[in-house]
């Protein structure tokens, strides 16, 4: 923390009898003292930040390596040793940053959500459901590695023993709830096609989105994700009057 200038305790009478040169020297000396204190504080702060900054950089490198390993091999087959090898660490050193493979998995999932804004996150109310979904889909096309990771881990999480099962189940519940609320607003405004149930439409949007992404990963030239989602949304969401 940068300190404030030290207070110069000079009486009024003494100050008036000082020459201007002496007064200037007094102020300069005080400033030099303050500057030295500030430099010392900044140097100390830099020294303190050093280890933390290096630790944070190493954690990011491990998470990115795990992202690549889990996307390529899945959580079950991806090994901590392979992750450690990619960042030039021993497995023991890696466990210093992430005590278990499960801890590393959750760090990767959080990192994935930070990159994509939670993947298929609900749109801004001012943007609108359709525009928000299509915008996020366009973004996803620019991050195939993130989508690969999501597809692999989401598929694996259907097994009872998978540590990510609760994460994905909670994520789908939240998305269904948020999309349902958005669709009910559209229904109240007369913009949801008659006979459509908001809860079922919400689940269908998520299912279609995930399914189309999977097909796109397998044959990117054959599947237009944005067009597929736009066509479905046009069937259930009516244009604004």
List the helices and strands and how they pair.
Blueprint: H1 12-17, H2 20-77, H3 80-86, H4 91-97, H5 101-116, H6 129-141, H7 144-156, H8 165-188, H9 198-218, H10 225-236
Helix pairs in contact: 2-3, 2-5, 2-7, 6-10, 7-9, 8-9, 9-10
The portion of residues forming beta strands comes to: under 5%
Please tell me the overall pLDDT. 80
Output the helix-strand order. HHHHHHHHHH
Helix content: over 70%
Radius of gyration: 29 Å
Number of helices: 10
Shape: elongated
Class based on secondary structure composition and strand pairing = mainly alpha
Q: Mind describing the biggest β-sheet?
A: none
How many domains would you count in the coordinates?
3
The N- and C-terminal alpha carbons lie at a distance of 58 Å
Number of strands: 0
In the predicted model, the low-confidence regions spanning at least 5 consecutive residues are 1-32, 119-123
Oligomer category = single chain
Give a structural overview.
The radius of gyration is 29 Å and the shape is elongated. 73% of the residues lie in helices and 0% in strands. The protein has helices at residues 12-17, 20-77, 80-86, 91-97, 101-116, 129-141, 144-156, 165-188, 198-218, 225-236. It has 241 residues and is mainly alpha-helical. Helix 2 (20-77) packs across helix 3, helix 2 crosses helix 5 (101-116) and helix 6 packs antiparallel against helix 10 (225-236). The protein folds into 3 domains: 12-52; 54-97, Arc Repressor Mutant, subunit A (Orthogonal Bundle); 117-236. The protein contains 10 helices and no strands. Mean pLDDT is 80; it is low at 1-32 and 119-123.
